[in-house]
Amino acid sequence: MKRIDIKSYPFRLRLHLLPILVWLGAVACVIGLFSRRSQRFEVLGLAQGQMRQIAATSPARLDSVSVRLFEQVQEGQTLAVLNTVLDDEQPRQQLQAELNTVLAEIERLTAQLVPTQDTLFAEKADRETTRISDSRRFSVDVDNARLDILRLRALVETDKITLEDLAWDVKITEQLVSEQAVAPYELQKTKTRHNALAKKIEENEHLLKQARATLEQALRRSEQYGQSQPHHPSVEGALDVVRKAIKVQEERMNEVLTQIESLDRREALELKAPFGGVVSQILHHQTEVVLAGEPIMTVSEGEVTEIIAYASESQMSLIKEGMAVELIKGSEPAKTQIERSEVTYVGPVVEPMPAQLWLNPNVPQWGRPFLIKAPAQMKLTIGEKVGIRTQ
Prior knowledge:
Strand content: 15-25%
Radius of gyration: 42 Å
Structural class: alpha+beta
Order of helices and strands: HEEEEEHHHHEEEEEEEEEE
């Protein structure tokens, strides 16, 4: 019978308990690591800046694009020029016809005013005093000045429209001459017509300026005379019909000129940069037709202002606004840059993540978005991946 050594029993007990204690310690360490891991998350985010799509508010033809892809632009810089006048509108021809009508009516009123003026001067001897004759003369001078202004404005605007057509003819003829499709004489002839009409417009604008000065003087003399001399009602009554017709033509002229100005703006509508940045996309080019709201190009801020990341379902409860995080830039240990920042915004809903952040490029992922302020010293590039972890 084997003898049991009672003194060695505690030692053997400790030998049996030691593996159990080691196993329990390992379990505790694993539980602690998993608990810490659940509190310290690591995700990837994307550096982003403000982006603005440039679009037309109505259907238009793209006349020109004055910037190139990835070009630096300043706030207010012209990016593209649109023509929003549709081909089936033909407003310029209609406005030309209305101007011709106004001009014809002005000529008719001028012809009607002449006999009225002669009649008024013929009645001079029958008036009680020469003051009545002077009042008529001042009134007629004002009306004649207004008619001259209307006539000259109509001529100038009509000639400007014709001058624009001649300018296009010059460009087309220059192209044909360069292609040896027509003789240089045709180009010289077209330029001569263009220059002659431009000179005529310049002269008429000078005459228009003089006519306005004449009207101001006539109104001033008439007002001064009316204050110092008794007003005869027969003068007003005799010219009342003509004056009303002149007023109508003045309103029609202003309306046509307003439409012409609006047409000029619509034919050369400039799209400007909303802020300084980089042209990151050009989706349409010259001569293409774009629909209302259809993006033409995209302008992005040159500097990264924030980083967007997405929390998984297990991480959602850990994300809080104002939470301190560490940002990690660079995949090589020697070039790794770590900066501190904080969460500035947490999205209210779960949404699809960008494809760049998918673990598997063939399996879409969802998450709750949150934004982090991008430190300026990291010098991130828009679209660059950034590691994010809690401190």
